[in-house]
Amino acid sequence: MAKKATQGPKGKKARSRSESAASDVSVAMATVKPAKAAKAVAPAAKAPAAKGPTPAPPAAKAKPASAAKTARPAVPAKGPEQSRRPAAVSVAAPAARPRRPKTAAIRPPRRATAPSSPEFAISDAARTANSQTAKAHAASQAAAKARAEAATSPVDPIKLLTPEQLRTMEALSLNLAKAAVTAQGAIAESALRQAERPAALSPDPFHVGSAMVDVMSQLAHQPQNMMRAQADLFNRYMALWSATSRRVYGQETEPVVEPAKGDKRFNDPEWRENIVFDVMKQSYLVTSNWLNDLVTHVEGVDPMSRRRVEFFTKALTDAFAPSNFLISNPAALRKAVETQGASILKGAENFAADLARGGGQLAISQTEFERFKVGENVATAPGKVVFRNALFELLQFSPSTETVYEIPLLIFPPWINKFYILDLRPENSMIRWLTAQGITVFVTSWVNPDASLATKSLEDYMAEGFYEAVRQVKRQCKVEQVNTVGYCIGGTALACTLAHMAATGDTSIRSATFFAAQQDFAEAGDLMMFTNEEWLKDLEKRMDAAGGVLPGAAMAETFNMLRANDLIWSFFVNNYLMGKDPTPFDLLFWNSDQTRMPKTLHMQYLRRFYQDNALACGTLELAGVHLDPGAITQPVYVQASRDDHIAPMRSVFRGAKLFGGPTRMTLAGSGHIAGVINHPDAKKYQHWTNDALPDTLEEWQAGAVEHPGSWWPHWLSWLAPLSGAKVPARDPAKGPLKPVGDAPGDYVKVRSDAE
What we know:
Layout lengths: L1 H6 L1 H21 L4 H13 L71 H35 L10 H33 L13 H12 L2 H26 L21 H4 L1 H22 L6 H17 L10 H9 L3 H16 L25 E6 L3 E6 L5 E3 L3 E4 L17 H7 L4 E6 L11 H20 L4 E6 L1 H16 L4 E7 L17 H13 L3 E2 L1 H11 L1 H14 L8 H7 L4 E2 H13 L2 H4 L3 E2 L2 E2 L9 E6 L7 H8 L6 E6 L17 E5 L6 H7 L1 E4 L3 H8 L6 E3 L12 E2 L13
């Protein structure tokens, strides 16, 4: 049985282990002297053999398997055969190793025992040395691994910060969290308010969908043009990356593209000095310029369709400017770091306040409204309200000279805005300047209409407004004629009134001056894009929902969109990204003080003038009278502004050519407002004069003479000879008309956003 046990698989493993152990003993004993080796073997031979299977090979040929194990305790096991420990180990006849059960227990730590002989002591010493070497090697490997992990693992940035920097980070995190909560609350409140309103009137509020389809279709049918355009874009980008690469290596390079003149979005020095922001800026300009040029030069498209697509594309590219995003605006990022995030929190608060002020729609503040009050620090010229009806209050301003010209001046401002654009501050007030020149000044302050006036038409405004104002001024000053001024849409209506008077033989108006006013709408301004029939139908629905009037905010939004970078995005960046309060500015306060407009009047104006160009084409009738602008023979002074986007100089020039009497035109620098309101003391801008009125604007400009500063003195030199002799100054409180209040009156104080 013992023989079978040693020859089976288990026996072979035991024999292998025994032979290995015997080999270890032989190596250890070879280092000891023969005599000592003999003495060591003798006691081992006398020791009783351990119980178990009888070893098959003799001691001389097979080294004992357990000889090397005498210094170690026997491993305890759960089986009964493994519970006994051998008393001694025999080198000559080693005992066979007992079998382990298949479910052996986990070995407990071995206890060290003292060596029983020098040779075993030497073996343990070698083993200890090897163990220490292994431990040292393992420790060395662990240290190397730790160093490698330290070199490759990211450094915790928090551990690199100073206490002051940690406090800054904590403040920044807190402000960012507060800003997020504030903005989220405002947006949630806005969503709740919007949920109470009817759905949007149109999924395409710009009504650009059909026009965009036309433009894209034409581009698709012009593959050669598209290929040239794509090659051009590729070349621009290659030039940009080439210049950027050279700049990275320290070479001086010229910009591939620069912002347009007057573009203030990239004024911060970082847009030029920091290569990252410079690449952002130039990449944006390359792409936006290319896209706008592509749309502008598409062929085979209706001009109005192309113009609407141009407007939409420009609005889109303006919105995606890198300056409009916090992460890509260097000035906003710098401000956020400097203020520890307080600027972002303030911006979120401004955003929430503007949403609340707009009733759930974002109404971006352009100035500090609380800083201005009509009649206190704007519209302060002294005077009286000498007449009032349902459509207007008639203001007569106090003289500032002892004598005045006999013929007064009656000014008709646009009913879209308030009249005090002519009297913002004493230092830029046209009204005060005119009274200082000896002119008796009257102004119509139009009502801010409500639903009760929804059916008032252009005929009503002509009869109850223009005609009535002229009658009351004649009565107050006891004169037969008045000089008149029409500003913007007020000038359009004044031209209609003059044509109506010409047809009926009324000579109450001696002369007419037009400030940035159009009579021929063939080349009208950007408002043409909002006058197609689809747009007008949606506008009618909006006015019906508002009770028959166009909300003042609607016109404000329209005018702001025409100059989005100046009137929308600049304030978006200032108020929300930079966290600043808007600068107090009287002009922007007036710009936001829009009036409502009666539905009938406004739709008549848009359809008959912008769509039909009825006055210039001779097809307009008011109150049953056919109007012919060529029948207007009074002296006319026309003022246009070079940069006007509402009444372009080309359109104004076309209107000047319609009149049948002596007409003089002056071209002012700047735009629709600043070109008109330019006090001589400011010494700003310039103007061009030409007494002739040739066939084209180009010819007029070629013969015009440039003058520095305001055009007002030139106008006065034309107006004064038409104003009669000097008479004693007129006190508004002592005329035939009994005053009903002090200037600026009550109508001008009614705000559209107060309801």
